[in-house]
Amino acid sequence: MRVDVKLFASLARYASHPMLAEDGAMELLSPVPVSHIADALHIPRREIKLIFLNGIHAQMDTKVKDGDRLGLFPPIGGG
Amino acid sequence: MRDLAADIEASWQSRKSHTNRDVKTISDADLAAMGKRHGRPVREVCVACLKMGITPLRYLRNSPSINIDEQITLAESEVAVAGAGGLGGHVILLLARLGIGRLLVFDPDTFDETNLNRQSLCVSNNLGALKAPGAARQCALINPAVEVTAHTAAITGSNPKSLFVKTNVMVDALDSAADRLFLAELSRELNIPMIHGAVAGFEGRVMTVFPGDKGMEILYPAEKADGEKPFSAENILGTPALAPALIAAFQAMAVLNILLKRGPGPKNRLLHLDLATASLNTFTL
Fold first, then answer.
1. A47: which chain B residues are within 8 Å (Cβ-Cβ)?
2. Same domain, B47 and B100
3. If pLDDT is split at 50, 70 and 90, which confidence band does B227 have?
4. Does residue B225 register a pLDDT over 60?
């Protein structure tokens, strides 16, 4: 299965992981929780503040399925 | 001496608008002179002109995107801006040009050299000066019909609630999670909509928060508010000039939408913009 992973702001520095294609595509064998994808990409949990699955607020244990769009945000507080 | 209405009637001048209509207009110099003659603030003279169908020249090019009745609404509105830094500076200047009647500006800080890269109110000859009065001085030059009250205490301080009895909208242009949560709670308590904005690198986000919405608690869970600064994106990416200008324009537009009842859009919707990839994403909280 294939999911689309978008790493926003400072999380973009983790996008060079070999599991992640340049366009954000990631191949997985079966549906997994968000935390599985974060760990696979070596993104420290403390750097992930907000999770969106298909544009809707989600949690670390939300299951990601084939064709889903996952967006991960760090804390953003600049003003 | 004739009364204000008679004075206005004698002072307006006809002018062709950019849409080739004949428009009754009045100059800033006349507004100021009449204010002085009648002992009235320029804002009040301005409102009196608008109500007589006379457009101050400074608002002529707002029309028809902002019509004369809407310009009156703006001139009779009050917006509180929390923070006069990167976002707040741009927001304040935009709201002043739009003709928001009263601005309450809160910022306890002074300008320093590291602000010069992005803060539109910060210039080389006001380094060391307080930001809130600096905003008031700049607004006076841009639009004398805007009454700015500069508060050099933080909005998170022990300000009396009575300060906000006339406030229609609050703008979150703060820079710490704890302060933003405080403002969210204050706006909820006072039943005033709040416009959240935040930036990091070439990205930023904006969200309209209505009293009762839980959006800010999702963006900034209280238990983590203080411990995450090293991982906050702005401390990793910096904050160049572009994102604050962009996000501030979206915040000012959100203020306009609320004041003019143009439909603020769906609730709990977070708008994220990335200048580097020219992309816009919306998320539902």
1. 231
2. no
3. low
4. no
pLDDT tens-digit series, residues B136-195:
999 999 999 999 999 999 998 877 889 999 999 999 999 999 999 999 999 999 999 999
pTM value is 0.96
Are the beta carbons of B272 and A55 separated by less than 8 Å? no
Provide the number of structural domains found in chain A.
1
Nearest-CA distance from A1 to chain B in Å?
A: 24
- State which of B71, B101, B130 marks the end of a domain: B71
Token pair of B270 as six digits: 């977070």
Q: Which of B85, B228, B236 sits opposite A79 (nearest CB)?
A: B85
pLDDT of residue B159: 79
- Here the tokens at position B73 are 């609404």
Helix (H) or strand (E) holding B258: helix B242-259
Residue A79 lies in a domain: no
Q: Is the pLDDT of residue B214 over 90?
A: no
Residue A25 in any domain: the answer is yes
User: Do B19 and B94 sit in the same domain of this protein?
Assistant: no
Please state the rounded mean pLDDT for residues B270-276: 97
Q: Is residue A78 part of a domain?
A: no
State how many domains chain B has: 2
Nearest of A66, A79, A63, A12 to residue A41 by alpha carbon? A12
Same domain, B90 and B12: no
Q: Residue A68 is part of which domain span? A: 2-73
Q: Pick from B174, B231, B237: which is nearest to A46 by CB?
A: B231
Looking only at the bridges linking them, the beta strands covering A50-53 and A56-58 are antiparallel
Last residue of a domain, one of B26, B41, B71: B71
Task: Report CB contact under 8 Å: B218, A57.
Answer: yes
Instruction: Look at residues A53, A32, A1, A16 and name the one whose alpha carbon lies nearest to residue B281.
Output: A53
ipTM value, please give it. Answer: 0.93
Q: What angle do CA B261, B264, B268 make, to 5 degrees?
A: 150
